[in-house]
Write a structure and sequence with these properties.
heterotrimer, A mainly alpha (90), B mainly alpha (126), C mainly alpha (313), B: 126 residues, mainly alpha, 3 helices, C: 313 residues, two-stranded antiparallel ribbon, globular
């Protein structure tokens, strides 16, 4: 059962990765990267259970945090240019 | 007693498997949907429902311990940050001039942070 | 942006290989901080590169390809994965695994190796981090008491993001402390905790602007903390020398060797965390805010205001 969950999550990660590479617009890519990150959190949690090492949950927590922060960083980087002006043309 | 354990196992199995199903369907949606906003709809399903179901299934497996608490923290964190970042992404995309599909959608985009920014954003769609 | 995915992927790989601590570090550093610092670097240098296809870029590409092929060729000479006679299984690893229990007495062997057996190496790593921070300060313009021009506007219109992050920040800081002091028992330690701590501060300064973040932690305090961490680490070594042991030999710090090891590891992990966090925040602040003299900053602000009132972009 957990193995099935791992397989489903890996397939999901793969599809998200494809969308991140193919995504026609910038925001599609950001969306796919975000989804990839949350699926990695799930993947680490489930694999930790599968291998009987629940220590991995700390890593999953760090991942969830870092994913959130880097998505914000990417958004603010593409929304503002260097002078702090709001970037309209992208 | 063993009956009880068996039921918990079955329940957590159902939860984990349905969570994986939602993850997978969201990933398919990410590929099949036509534009950014509909794709976002698909992706946020995996963030909230998929992650929530999988993590609560794992919680049932873990029993009552520190592991359950950590899983609960992860779940809460994902449930708080997922919608927040989705909202931020949608807002950024909308302000960059991208419009949702649809015939009769009328969006008024408020000016962004600067007061004098009169030409900011796309105004509306008839 | 794809580098973030690279970090995620390699951390998943470490998880599969059962290397908890390495996966932890990769999660914090590779996926989080390096992406953020990369983006801020791009924001300084400009987003678009002048495209000039010259012979030099071709030579560079060729060189990279050749080196890549050579590296892949080099991996063929490495021993196969998981063989019992591999070097990793032969030398000192068995000694560490057998003796950590009674010599140091903490359950996480990785921390024992990192902080005690290889304490000198870790000291070197810490000095490298500190030197990187000093180099950034030396290269980029800043001054001791200059006025900070905030190149980074707060994200005022992302109200939901701001409120959510404000809710989460105390828990992130608490989690960083947990990772810091839990390093003896589970995965974690100074490096990871420092990065998480720095990430929390970077999150705050991204959403609320640099000036607000500087009111929380001012720039001189950061520089002081960066130096203090290295100083703490080094002075633990000096004290253990004064007490009659070798440099960074914690066994002589207290009455029993095990208690001394505990105290020493706790102290140096704290030093590592302090320096790593301070250097990360320092690099981020120097990258995003340009510090210039008061007169020039007044000119810049006036010019920006003038542009603003002139209006329509």
């Amino acid at each position: 059962m957990l193995t099935a969950a791992v397989i489903a999550i890996v397939v999901t990660m793969f599809l998200a990765l494809l969308r991140a590479m193919a995504g026609p617009s910038l925001y599609d890519r950001i969306l796919a990267v975000n989804m990839f990150g949350t699926k990695t959190v799930l993947f680490i949690a489930v694999v930790g259970f599968l291998m009987g090492r629940p220590m991995f949950l700390d890593i999953a927590l760090v991942y969830a945090l870092m994913n959130f922060i880097s998505v914000i960083a990417i958004l603010r980087f593409f929304e503002y240019d260097k002078r702090g002006e709001i970037n309209h043309d992208r | 007693m063993t009956d009880n354990v068996l039921w918990i196992d079955i329940l957590s199995g159902i939860l984990v498997l349905s969570g994986s199903f939602f993850c997978f369907s969201g990933a398919v949606g990410l590929h099949r949907f036509p534009d950014f906003f509909t794709r976002m709809h698909a992706a946020s399903v995996t963030d909230t429902l998929g992650a929530g179901l999988v993590l609560s299934g794992l919680m049932l497996q873990a029993g009552f311990s520190l592991v359950t608490l950590k899983l609960l923290f992860i779940l809460l964190f994902l449930l708080i940050t997922g919608p927040a970042s989705s909202h931020a992404m949608a807002k950024a995309a909308l302000h960059s001039g991208r419009k949702p599909l649809g015939e009769h959608i009328r969006i008024d985009i408020p000016a962004m942070s600067r007061e004098d920014d009169s030409s900011g954003g796309v105004k509306s769609k008839p | 942006m794809l580098s973030g995915i690279y970090g995620l992927l390699s951390a998943s790989l470490f998880v599969v290989l059962d290397a908890v601590d390495v996966a932890f570090t990769e999660a914090a550093v590779g996926a989080g901080i390096s992406t953020i610092l990369m983006l801020t670097t791009l924001a300084i240098t400009g987003r678009y590169e002048l495209s000039r296809p010259s012979i030099r870029t071709r030579i560079g590409l060729l060189l990279v390809l050749v080196i890549g092929v050579l590296l892949i060729y080099g991996t063929l000479g490495m021993p196969y994965f998981g063989m019992p006679e591999n070097p990793a299984n032969g030398h000192v690893a068995a000694y560490y695994l057998e003796n950590t229990e009674q010599q140091i007495g903490i359950p996480n062997y990785v921390t024992a190796v990192l902080a005690s057996y290889r304490g000198f190496d870790t000291f070197g790593e810490l000095v490298v981090v500190f030197t990187a921070g000093v180099a950034v300060l030396a290269l980029l313009p800043h001054s001791r008491d200059g006025f900070v021009v905030d190149d980074m506007q707060p994200m005022k219109h992302h109200l939901i993001l701001r409120i959510t992050s404000k809710l989460l920040l105390p828990f992130i800081l608490l989690f960083a402390l947990y990772v810091q002091f839990h390093g003896d028992f589970g995965p974690g330690g100074g490096f990871q905790a420092g990065v998480i701590f720095a990430a929390a501060i970077i999150l705050y300064s991204m959403l609320y602007g640099l000036e607000n973040a500087m009111q929380v932690i001012s720039f001189p305090v950061i520089r002081f903390c960066a130096a203090l961490g290295v100083l703490l680490y080094g002075s633990v070594g000096i004290v253990s020398m004064l007490k009659g042991g070798n440099f960074l030999d914690y066994s002589v710090l207290l009455e029993t060797p095990v208690a001394g090891q505990h105290l020493g590891i706790l102290l140096i992990e704290f030093g590592v965390g302090l320096t790593v966090a301070a250097v990360m925040v320092c690099v981020f602040f120097t990258f995003t805010g340009s510090v210039v003299s008061p007169a020039k900053s007044a000119r810049v602000v006036a010019a920006r205001d003038g542009e603003k009132t002139q209006g329509a972009p």
